[in-house]
Design a protein that fits this description.
Chain lengths: ~270, ~270
């Protein structure tokens, strides 16, 4: 299987550089006139794929909002994954998993193995247990041609407490940039990326030489703009995969309005 | 509802101080003569509750190993939770979730709301996005009388990379001790606890005055001993909830052997 970095590059070349967050919050379900239960969740996510699956480069479902409906919600997530794949959209599972050893291997099997009904093209992971704790996920992603996005630096005000802590001259966030860079070896684009917030006042990590994808949530409703991305990321802006959720989903449920929201944002990002 | 800290104290007084990790790894399923699929998972976890539900104080299912079987695995987890509750055992869901804002609120609804089929007595959470990012979970746990265990300091060799990073004189791990301590306000035992590894060479956080529960994985097969706990935690040892998984589960599937393994370890911990 072609590796994730190369597949993502092809997809972005064909469909444009936009990742659509699938965040079916209770408020969105209500706004769409749907019930706040697994049936409403299924209808919402079905409509998203139906309206957008043939034009969106990447969907990013937010696992929490499916888990909130228990196994029925996870069943909906499985059907969403299958439908997105059938429509030709890639999927980054936003689950921010992190653990050690054989437990991390369990998360890897869930989201990165060919046999799992929850397998996605890539998975977001959390490195509180150290970058090295993610090794089982890196190994399985390598084996199956999938990707990882490692939490690095987030825009929420309290994010710096951990991410800017000092590890002998480098921040924790910089350590993640450097470690993920090493995992990409000499591949450009590499299969391993970073999650960095789009509404930081300034970029406080050095991305020079980083050759993976940079998943940037917060475009649109959360305050990030396309011009702001260029300013924040400078030379690394070309590696950014901007993610918008609320701005897109609040245009629904009308399929034409959803498509227009995506097309407009995709055009701005060209 | 009585809060988690008080309920846990009562439970430990009645059943002893042992948390049994429910980690149905593929190897365990095979060792028990079960199929490595959702049916095998269901049989394994059913046998655990059946053999141990009336004597174990707390079960700690490892979410990853259920997620690895997709929605069918999560359905098994739901049935496990219901069976454990019926048998009078408490449950700490080991899922190490962490996100921000309305997404963290989604995880909180999944594991800490009265309505969710995945609700447990407490949930493990990961603070890479800053302690403050956990606020929606803290608020819901307060409202429903549930608890949280915040990842603090783990025994894996790479854990120090993030956990021992310096935040102006305090390590990240120490910040978590202090923040969780504040969240407990003046309650003793408070509902908010810490996850600290049981096989650290030395305790490098100061737990003086910490009034929550300390979840300590790694007793038994991972190398931690009861004597070692006392040595490592000193005065805080009385707050430790020691967790053993492999040592117990490898005694199965025979119910008498499982009960004997639990009884012996519980007696050692008195």
């Amino acid at each position: 299987m072609t590796d994730f970095g190369a597949r993502l590059a092809e997809q972005v070349a064909a469909r444009g550089r936009l990742c659509v967050g699938v965040d079916p919050h209770p408020q969105i379900l209500q706004d769409w006139g749907l019930s706040v239960d697994a049936a409403g969740l299924a209808e919402c996510t079905h409509r998203m794929v139906d309206a957008l699956g043939d034009i969106v480069a990447v969907f990013k479902p937010q696992s929490a909002l499916f888990e909130a409906f228990g196994s029925a919600g996870i069943g909906v997530l499985e059907r969403f994954l299958a439908a997105a794949d059938k429509a030709g959209a890639m999927v980054i599972m936003d689950a921010k998993r992190g653990d050690i050893g054989s437990t991390m291997a369990g998360y890897a099997r869930a989201y990165l193995s060919n046999e799992s009904p929850l397998a996605a093209d890539a998975l977001t992971v959390s490195p509180y247990l150290g970058f090295g704790s993610l090794t089982p996920a890196i190994q399985l992603a390598e084996a199956t041609g999938r990707g990882l996005y490692v939490l690095c630096r987030t825009s929420n005000p309290e994010g710096g407490q951990v991410q800017l802590a000092d590890t002998g001259g480098r921040s924790v966030a910089q350590v993640m940039v450097d470690e993920v860079g090493l995992a990409n070896a000499d591949r450009d684009p590499g299969p391993f990326g970073l999650v960095i917030g789009g509404t930081l006042p300034a970029l406080d990590v050095d991305l020079t030489g980083f050759a993976g994808s940079i998943l940037v949530p917060g475009i649109g409703a959360q305050g990030g703009t396309v011009a702001g991305l260029q300013e924040l990321f400078g030379a690394a802006a070309a590696r950014v995969l901007p993610t918008s959720s609320r701005e897109i989903m609040s245009a629904g449920p009308d399929p034409d309005s959803l498509r227009r929201a995506v097309t407009e944002l995709t055009d701005q990002l060209r």
